[in-house]
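ok trying again, last paste got cut off:
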Amino acid sequence: MARNRFAHIMQHLHFTNNAHPKSFTDRAWKVRSVLDTLQKRFAAGYKVPPVLAFDEAIIPSRSRYNPTRQYLKDKPHKWGTKLFMTCCARTAYCLRLEVFCGKQQHIDEIGDDETTAENKSGPAAVARNIRAVLPPQQDGVFYAVVTDRFYTSVQGAIQLLARGVYSLGTILANKAGYCTEIKEKNRSRPASIPRGPTRFAVNKAVPAIAAAVWWDNKPVQFLSTGGGRNMLTCERRLRGGDKVTVPCPYMIRDYHRWMDGVDVHD
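nice, full thing came through this time. structure:
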């Protein structure tokens, strides 16, 4: 296609009414109708699985005319539109995607019936999207969601548990409500500590919530509700390339098994 032909089509290609009042407050308004259609098709084509993976993804774009452009240093493409994606943890099928339009816009769109226990954009996005994906709550039917450290919080875990959703994920040690007794001051593993030791802490008010710190090269903080706390072993690679077998909690294996559901879309 010729460049001028492409520019002519793009100039007249519109999906929504630019004069609508929401066009001034919704950064993704120009493609909002397309996103809504995709959400319906995604939901209609797949049954909600028992284990979900929630994480962020990015649509590459360096255009300064993109109102949703973000910089994510840990992604293969640093610049682009940030998405919150809810996927099947086993097949990586995308059940729902949400364009991140800024924390304030999402707060303004939340009604009285959609309150969240955590007002941070990450944990709030987990509760919001899981609620949109799951069917009405039924007795004896439970789900699980796996998140990384930016989307895990104690308040969010309690809220999900009340909805019949177990959660598992790494967590930042400075999160509100996290157990201070197992926080590690050392940012890297001392020579006196081998790989594999684990310490657990159980919430007295909500015994289903357990925190754990596992020593790898660095201390790894975990938070889970209803997850297994038994110990098993896993293989870790040394600097020289050799592999070594170290003890690890059951939740470590579950996390690495289910967390890649979103990363494959990068």
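cool. The two ends are 27 Å apart (CA to CA). The first strand starts at residue 51 and ends at 60.
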